Structures are given as C-alpha cells and as structure tokens.
Amino acid sequence: MLIRDERGMTVVELLVTMISVIVVLSAITTITTAALSSQDRITDRVSVNQRARPVMTRIIDALHSSCVAQRVAPVLAGSTGTSISFLSKNGSAVTPTPDRRVISLSGTSLVEQVYPATGGQPPVWTFSSTPSQTRTLMTNVAAPGTGQPVFSYYDYVTGRLNTTPLPTPLSTTNAARAAYVTVSFRVNPSGVSQDAKAHLTINDAADLRLESAGQFPAQENLPCM
To answer: How buried is residue 138: exposed, middle or buried, by Cβ count under 10 Å (0-12/13-18/19+)?
Structure first.
C-alpha cells in the first residue's frame, strides 16, 4: 500500500519564497525604472541639442561676420561675461555698414538685439539707441557653471593666443585687442518635469583674425588684420 505524503509548505518555507519573490520583483522594478529614466534623459538631451546647436551656430556666424573692415575692432568696450556687444554685417559690400549686435544672458533667456547704424563711416559709426530687432534666441539657458562666463575674450601676445582671458567688462583698449571669443552655455530641458542630469553644455569659439597670428609673429596681433 502506497502511503501518500500530505505534508505542505512550512511557514518558514513560505516566508523564504515570498522574500525571494519580493527581491526578484524589486530588482526588476529597479532595472525598469533605471532604463526608463535613462531613456527619458537621452530624449531630453537630444531635444536640448536640437535647440542649442542652431543658436550656437547663429552666434558664431554673427561673430565671423564681425570683421567689416581692416583695423576696425569688432568687439566693443563694455562687453562682459554674460553680454557681448560687437559689430556685424552680412553682405557682398567690400566695407559694409555694420549693425551693433548685443547678445546677452538675461535671466534664463539668451537674447539678441540689433542696433542699426544711423551715420558715420569706417572706422567710426553711430548707432540707433533703440534696437530695430529684439529676439529671444533660447530659453532655459544658464552659464556653463557657477561663476563661469558665457563669453570670454582673448588677445594675441607675440604671435600666440593668450591663455588668460581679458578682464571684463572690456575696456576700450582691451576690446580693441580681443581677437578670439569663446562662447559657452548650459541648456536645460524644457517642460515642467526636468532631469537635473539631462542638461547639455555646448562650447564654440570664433577667431576674429583673418590670418593666423602664429605664422606672422612680427605682425600686429590685433583682430581683423
């Protein structure tokens, strides 16, 4: 006669099984949450990059159009780490009449203002006191880091680019020597819910010389030469 074993699970075995199931489910939940968070972060960074790159290109293109005439300093006195004022103009004219552009970090917005010329001639023009255009280039913008500038200005010393930025706000003398400008800003993702790690910091620079100073060390190391 076969004796059937009718014993069930003990309380200890049941608790061990439940704890094992909870651990497995917790691990699955953690992995899923991390994967979704990573995916959201990547999506935010891609979105931020798509917004930021065209703005940076616009700024650098404007700076590359700032050498409107030889020996005319494009960067103007008073430019700071959060606001740059410079001459700029696109066109086919040999010596175009420039606009004065001011790009500044105002709160959390990057704003561009254009002041048209009202008179004068190279190398001195007069400009309207009222901007003809004011546009917000981007929102949710900040300096690249605490105490770090958005705009930095460098001059050439004996044919080499100075590694120490010029002090700001730029004096008239230092503005006339600013031949290299770096631009750096941090962009945060838009929307109410923001991942603190989803921001993107982008950097670029504009060389305001028409030739390499390193190749001509005996030449004046000024912009737009």
So the answer is: buried
In the DSSP assignment, the letter for residue 214 is G
Indicate the length of the chain as a whole number: 225
Residue 200, φ and ψ in degrees, nearest 5: -135, 130
Rg value, the chain, Cα:
29
User: Tens of pLDDT along 63-94?
Assistant: 988 888 777 889 999 999 999 999 998 766 66
Measured CA to CA in angstroms, residue 53 lies from 161, 200, 223 at distances of 26, 11, 26
Residue type, position 110, single letter? L
Average pLDDT of span 194-223 = 71
| DSSP symbol at 174 | H
Alpha carbons 222 and 199: distance in angstroms, whole number: 36
Residue 35: how many CB atoms within 10 A of its CB? 10
User: For residue 149, what are the CA distances in angstroms to 42, 61, 82, 86, 188?
Assistant: 27, 20, 6, 17, 17
DSSP code per residue over 48-85 = HHHHHHHHHHHHHHHHHT---STT---BPTT--SSEEE
Is the pLDDT assigned to residue 103 strictly greater than 70? yes
